Amino acid sequence: MPRARDVPGPGEGVAVSFGDQLAQYVVSGLTTGAVYALVALGFCLIYNATRVVNFAQGDFLSLGGLMAYSFLGGAGLPMVLAFPLAVASVALVGALLERLAIRPARSRQVMVLIFITIAASILMRGVFKHLWGKQALALPPLSPETPMHLLGATFTPQNLWVLGITLVAIVALVWFFNRTLTGKAMRATAINPSAAALMGIDAHRMTMYSFALAGALGALAGVLITPITSLSYEVGVIMGLKGFAAAVLGGYGSFLGAVVGGLALGLIESLAAGLISSVYKDAVAFVVLLLVLFLRPGGLLGVKSGDRV
Amino acid sequence: MTTQGKRFFLALAALAAVLAALPLVVTNPYYLNVLNVVALNVLVVTGLNLLIGFAGQISLGHAAFFGLGAYISGILTGTHGWEPWTALVLAAAVVALVALVIGMPTLRLEGNYLVMATLGFNLIVSVLMLQLDDITGGPSGYTGIPPLTFFGAPIATDLSFYWLAWGAVLLGLLLARNLVHSRVGRGLKALHEAPLAAAASGVPIESYKVKVFVVSAVYASVAGSLYAHYYGIITPKTFDIFKSVELVTMCIVGGMGSLWGGLFGAALLTPLPQLLAVVEEYKDIFFGGILLLLLIFLPQGLVGWLEGKRVRPGGRAF
Question: Which member of A35, A260, B83, B243 has the greatest number of CB atoms within 10 A?
Fold first, then answer.
């Protein structure tokens, strides 16, 4: 039996038409999907630079929300300063992760490096819990919550902020990687580190930039989504795993794939929760993950064989 | 018998002797309990090490296999009144089948697809354990699981379970060692060192990898069944993705792909959270920090370090 969730439909209390419900699921699905896309892009950046799946990506999201909370409430900064500062500070944490844990690692085996990110994730969550406590915190939305109606769906300004800022972030990334020297150098390092090094590119530095950028993307996701979900020291764990599923769905390592995978996963999840059952909502992303791996391991936009790069 | 073979059996005999003597010294039920948990972890990690060492793949889903073993055994005996040993065997068979279904499509591929699939699988299993509360008891867990029996006598005390669990570990190590030295093991070793040469020599790589994955899942399932009958109560939290991470961590800290590594890793890391409970507030920080330092500076693992193994820098791919 389909039923409306979270946000009440336009005719609350009155029977809501199926079309309106559908529109509602699409709005909430795209919003979450945009955030998955940001997380997936972070995974993608670090994977391309190092072949490492960065399991601390979700913690970047938590930290983004937590830092924004402290800059706003603790330091009393205005939103327009607090949010960019939160993003910048997580970018710094990302760079530090590369500089202090990945670069000095005595083994270059991908498996060991992956587990270094897992250990870093455990450590970071411990620190977050110590500094911000276990309780749920609240981050205000970017602008006052006056619901708007369009095509039967009700949405808040925050939905628009999430979609808009994600779009801006993606355009900025594309510009950065295609138009700037640093961006091109990062791509060169991802494609062939030795050849890039021979051209005088500092591969370590490029890898560090990838981690910083991944940190920034994670933090942006955190600042955008935590006003809608909730904020705690471990909010990023499940969001990170779903972002990972989105990256696989799109084609792990592909930028466009990360965006398409994120939006698609958000939609699938929202529709499945709304039309089938919300009890298994958290399992949907991972069922999709398994299906993709079994049927089309290269992802939606990846190459057909699993033997990529 | 080769020198290496002799060394293995000497080490195994030494371990058995230490294990036989240990209960004379350790009589406190709390410490016996810790030793029992170590044993179950060693069992799972031994299976995992076979997978890591010989198929060059990691699984982040072994807690799910461990949990499936526990829940199938628990529910069959608790709700349906099965005989515990029969339930244990059936659970292992079901888990083997599940591992086959996951392993077949993903181990065909180059790269780390098994990690992704097992990770997703573990998360799904966790949701099912939580949500199917009619069958599993939901978040508060499943209770009323009877103990295993030994010729009619229940294995209910910490000491009797100690003999059972560590007996299973010795058997598990022996079987793993035989697998390593079997045709499959030699084929996989060749595969690990020179994949192309192995394939060219007619080693059926894919089917061997799948076999090892299934065997390693069965190790986890058996350990899970033992766990369920030992505690009598099981909760979903015990089998979540963090447990999977912990298990692989034990492999890495002990020494990846080394049969003895699992023993060291599990023995070191199992009691660590309890030891760190003294500094409860900073537990995760210490645990994460210790892990981080070990992984950065001692990636060959404790056993590798003791054997004076140099760090293999390795390439960029798995």
Answer: A35
Extract the tokens encoding B157: 């005390």
Cβ of A293 within 8 Å of Cβ of B106? The answer is yes
Q: Contact at 8 Å (CB) between A29 and A266?
A: yes
Asked if A243 and A57 count as a contact pair (C-beta separation under 8 A), the reply is yes
This prediction's pTM: 0.86
Contact call for B299 and A308, based on CB within 8 A: no
Angle (CA) B113 B118 B120, round 5°: 100
Give A281's DSSP letter. H
Measure CB to CB from residue B116 to each of A125, A293, A305 and give the nearest one: A293
User: How far is the alpha carbon of A146 from chain B, nearest alpha carbon, in Å?
Assistant: 35
CA-CA distance, A240 to A254, in Å (whole number)? 17
* Geometric angle at alpha carbon B271, from B273 and A114, rounded to 5°: 60
**Chain B residues with CB inside 8 Å of A294's CB?**
105-106, 117
Decide if A51 contacts A295 (C-beta within 8 A): no
Would you kindly state where each structural domain of chain A is located, as residue ranges? 35-143+163-295
- Cα–chain center distance at A109: 26
Among A106, A130, A289, the residue with its CB nearest the CB of B297 is A106
Residue A202: other Cβ atoms inside 10 A: 13
Determine phi and psi for B176, rounding to 5 degrees: -65, -40
Whether A171 contacts chain B with CB within 8 A = no
Check CB contact under 8 Å for B116 and A289: yes
User: Which 3 state secondary structure label does DSSP give A150?
Assistant: strand
What is the complex's ipTM, to 2 decimals? 0.83
Q: What number of residues does chain A have? A: 309
Q: Which residue of B has its CA nearest to A289?
A: B120
